[in-house]
Amino acid sequence: MRLRLAGLTFGVLAAGSAYAQYVISAHSGVIQVVEGKAYLNDKAVETKFGQFPDIKQGQEFRTAEGRAEVLLTPGVFLRMGDNSSIKMVSNALTDTRVEVQSGSVIVECDEIPKDNSIELLYKDSTMMLVKHGLYRINTEPAARFQVYDGEAIVKGESGQLTLRGGKETSLGGALMAENFDKKETDDLYSWSSRRASYLSTANASSAMSMLNSGSYSGYSGYSSGLFGFNGWQFNPMFGMFTYVPMMGFGYSPFGYGWYSPYTIGYYMPYYGGYYPGTYGYAGGRPASQIASLGSSRGFANTSAAHPGGGFGGFGGMARGGSSGGGMASGISSGGGHGGGHR
Predict the structure, then answer these.
(1) Element containing residue 17 per DSSP (H, E)
(2) Strand partners, 307
(3) Most exposed among 36, 132, 142, 227, judged by the fewest C-beta atoms under 10 Å?
(4) Which of 235, 310, 298 has its CA nearest to residue 272?
(5) Which of 55, 58, 36, 57 is nearest to 47 (CA)?
(6) Mean pLDDT for the chain?
(7) b/e string for 42-81 if b means 16 or more Cβ within 10 A?
């Protein structure tokens, strides 16, 4: 079961807990992380804790020796490698269009709302991202678009092409679906995977805090999706925004889980107390019960064997058996602002 997202408005609102603050964005383009050097309209971007520059419509954002993560619609992350440049053609949540001008860009789509449109542009080509998945544009040595997971519609002067997982096409000349090796990765891919791990861990922390404080109950700031309310949330312990579905759960294409306040207590292992869930469920289930629950829902229970393990296991309940890193490893490896470029 995956969740539909809702459009939000920019600002940070207290959510009734020291560890729960919402960011509400009426548009795409919030710069979440910069490692190394980056420039917004040729002005150096200086990152400070709790402050996030905004790419306005028509502005250009580029990296030099560095990497960056940009928040698009809730649950969609755009990540840039060294010497990469983008232009925000349209920053509306219902019509997000990003022109990739140079370099390498990866887009992780953990959820795409039914009424939202997310498009990547490169010269005369348009790539519409239509499903949960992982997508990439490389402009050098020869421009190409790759779909690791998901589905995209590519339009160019030569026609239209639908690409699914494991397929790529050149963005110069005729569009043609070709296979590529998804196991061949590089620094940008590895960094994107680590970012997904840190964000999943921050999600679990925020969702648990919301559950304990009851701050999610009755909150009316989000528009409703099919399964509930969804959005970005600022976690001050991690110094970054994470995606928190308000009901159910989801997963990253890298394998890490997203939990809502309703499901975090039910699926996470016992941490020294029972956390009340909804519909009569009780959180903090024993490891044996969680293993059964995870298996029945297609999740590998990689964290259930660590009751009492603290934040370290929060990223571990992952689709496909991926194991999440803990809070300490995320921060020390540059998960938030100020992390060293590696």
Answers:
(1) strand 12-17
(2) none
(3) 142
(4) 310
(5) 36
(6) 73
(7) eeebebeeeebbbbeeeeebbbeebbbbbbbbbbbbbbbb
**Scanning the structure block, which residue is given the tokens 């100020």?**
338
Residue 6 near residue 76, CB atoms below 8 Å: no
CA dist., res. 242 & res. 206, Å (int): 8
Going by C-alpha positions, the residue among 34, 1, 38, 9 that lies closest to residue 249 is 1
Find the radius of gyration of the CA atoms of the chain: 19
Classified as helix, coil or strand, 52 is coil
Q: State how beta strands 151-156 and 144-149 pair.
A: unpaired
Instruction: State whether the Cα torsion 26-12-70-54 is positive or negative.
Output: positive
List the one residue out of 318, 98, 291, 330 whose CA is nearest residue 199.
330
From first CA to last CA, the distance across the chain in angstroms is 36
Alpha-carbon span 217 to 57, nearest angstrom: 34
Please, are residues 55 and 31 in contact by the beta-carbon 8 Å criterion?
Answer: yes
CB-based contact 294:259 (threshold 8 Å): no
151: which residues sit within 8 A by CB, 6+ positions away? 130, 131, 133, 162, 163, 164, 165
Residues 6+ apart with CB under 8 A from 303: 268, 269, 309, 313, 314, 315, 316, 317, 323, 324
| CA-based nearest residue to 12, from 232, 207, 200, 228 | 232
Amino acid 192 reads S
Can you give the pTM of this predicted structure?
0.73
Residue 323 clears pLDDT 70, i.e. is over it: no
Residues in the chain, overall count: 342
Q: What's the maximum distance between 2 C-alpha atoms anywhere in the chain?
A: 61
CA 257 to mean position of chain CA atoms? 11
